Amino acid sequence: MAEAHEAVAFSFSVGHEGFNVDVSYDVFKALFYAGYRSWKLRCRRTLNSLYNSLYPGHPSRGIACCGVVAGLYFKGYDPSFHIIDWLESNIFRRYLQPRNGKILACIVFGGGGYILFIQLRQYTLKKLFSYHGWMYQEHGKNIGLVPKIWSVLVKLCVGRNPSLFSCQNFLPSLPLPSLDETLRRYLRSVRPLYDDNEYQRMEKLAEEFKQTIGRKLQRYLWLKWIISTNYVSDWWEKFIYLRGRSPIMVNSNFYGLDAIYIRPTTIQTARAANLTCAAFRYRTELDHENIKPLMIQKFVPLCSSQYERQFNTVRIPGKETDKIIHYADSHHVAVYHKGRWYKVFMFYKDNLLQPCELQLQLDEIIRDTTPPNYGEEHLAALTAGERPLWAEARETYFSSGVNRYSLEAIEKAAFVLILDDEDFEIGTQDVKSDWPTSDKGSMTGKLDDYACAILHGKAYNRWFDKSFNFIVSRNAVFGFNVEHSWADAPITGHLAEYVLSEDIMNYGYDALGNTCGTPRFTALKPIKLKWNIPESCNLMIEKSLVQATKVYNDVDLHIYVQDSYGKGFMKKHRLSPDAYIQMSLQLAHYRDSGHFNLTYEASMTRLFRDGRTETVRSCSIESSHWVKAMEDPTVSKVERIKLLRAACDHHQLQYRDAMSGKGIDRHLFCLYVVSKYLNLDSPFLHQVLQEPWKLSTSQTATTYDDKRLTKLMSQKPDLAEKMALDRLKNIAAAGGGFGPTPASYEDRYPQFNRKKKGIKAGGGFGPVAADGYGVSYIITSEDLIFFHISSNKSSAETDSKRFGQRIQQAMQDMRELLESESKSASSSKNEKKISTVVPSTDQPA
């Protein structure tokens, strides 16, 4: 294995025989090509910035505009109304010949006019995108006149073929709600949580706040809204994420799982090489801005600013607050395996390594028998424990020398790759509803163990400060752990879907499960990082490990797979799938706790510049009425269905309000921050911010359209079958344990079943409240939903498996309720047919 000194371009030493200079030309070449690549990237970013500033126009159109103006002017038609003559005579004549001055004046006028035209289009689009009435149109009904006119205007003004950041200039700012409206919405949202006396107390606190310091805080917040692109995002990042002093493992970081239906290989280094190269390919697409911005209705763009810090980003600990550092470029990844850290270069002579070339380096890491340095094995536990302890250790022991060099190799890496030394078990076959209970419970437990391993691992085998960690198990199962402060889950979800698609559809594997292709050259060897950990530092590492171990040992994580029905049934009954699932969670949580609780559902605000999230308060007056009706045997099914539809409609209205900037919680949060800056105390705001979210939920959405995988499933089933059967034979020959041999390839590889297209298992997060639940869910297909349920073992009020059973029962009760409506409608139709009088033959037609 290459030692650390191999990364040094030259070494100089003095011995008995004189001077000795050892030069590494490979490293000099690597440095040269790294600089060359950075220069090219900087030039490309400059050109992209120019292109984005002119969007929805284009620089070539601006040049054409200058040419047309010059052509008309010299033909005797002055389109500038003598402005060109004025520019030439008053500005350019003293420096240039008259003809050259006129040419330059034509260019200035044409270019200035084109830029002014583009600015007008951008301003118009900004105003058009501030309108959100189109979101409130009911599905299946005629679109109103105003939304129709709006859509026509948008299509006329918006450009074609936007790059990733092209639409940023005309995204509107997040609107600042009125104080009265926010207080009204808040009081309505907490009505089901309080009895009459408590609710009257909250009403008095809200009125007192409004009549005393509320207006003053609103005016200060209005000033921030005027001068900032988004009045929430910077404070949200700073105070919610970076100021937190507790461990970010479990409490902040979230995780994502592998494609649940597919096992393309069981060779760890092959899978890791494919996924890592796919991630760098995705980063290249980001750097070149070739990825298109996500659009709603195909022409309403979402903010793309969160993509900027996806790679080359790290969270740096501080004693009072952390900070996020983003590096312009990175040419390597940091790799962890069996307690040792490595630096692996991803480029050779300005060429990105192919998977087969990277696999050679990873194989060398796997074969390495060098023991970890003292303190190295548990080093990453510093990122999992209390933040002040990590800040102190970093400042004391990692600010100079070999420790600083090695730490920078990790922090400046594009991301971290973990080659885990454990096996993970996945597959929805493990949790089929028709399996025996004992087998199903055993397999579900394996899926839970897999999710726990990705969420927190052993606390010392993940670098939780990095923007994300790719984790590949010994049997080649993939997962990722994400630091939350720099972006929200859909951004990493986009990356995960891309790399999983590239892994199968572009790179693939040979018959033995290794990467495809032949290495073009022998790349630089992996560099094993050196550490000089003194005893005092190792004591801090072990102390942090104890803190982190206490946190993750308390995690109760369970994945419930709802496979009896899914969104197809919900849509059939004209109900929003998200609203339907939220109502099932309300019913399940009420049965679990015996009362209503404050419920958080994350909604995005990326329709606005630098937007992140807003809260949808799922526990509402409407939902509480429906839940009570479900628990009251005297209420008829017809009435229950009516209340369910009203609850779902209200939830959709809340979700739309949150997306369009009419949320409650971010506004109140910012008012609270202003009050702290002004040293003003508010019992109302203190009460609002201290209310625990006993049920915190989030839906994982599919953001990347996997057209190539769908194409393979639909157009090349024979190839898909051959790939699956070859893989099964190779795994069986290698002694892989998949259990009984399936009757057909679709039994083991349902992703190749043309009827099944959902392959994502989603991901999850830790509980927000000590005595509450965290629930993340993903609707993967017409009849499959994954629920990731987390809680704390130390809480006597919660049990994740029990709550999964509550969800299962709630979903079943809702299905039976709606099926009764269908049966009733069907029987009434049959009765009408029977009661229809058939005219006799002697009656006139």
TrEMBL record:
Residues of the Choline/carnitine acyltransferase domain: 174-809
GO molecular-function term, one example from the UniProt record: carnitine O-palmitoyltransferase activity
Chief subcellular location: membrane
Pathway noted in the entry: Lipid metabolism; fatty acid beta-oxidation
Pfam families with a match to the protein in the record: Carn_acyltransf, CPT_N
Enzymatic class: transferase
Topological type in the membrane: Multi-pass membrane protein
Membership in a protein family: Belongs to the carnitine/choline acetyltransferase family.
Protein name (database record): carnitine O-palmitoyltransferase
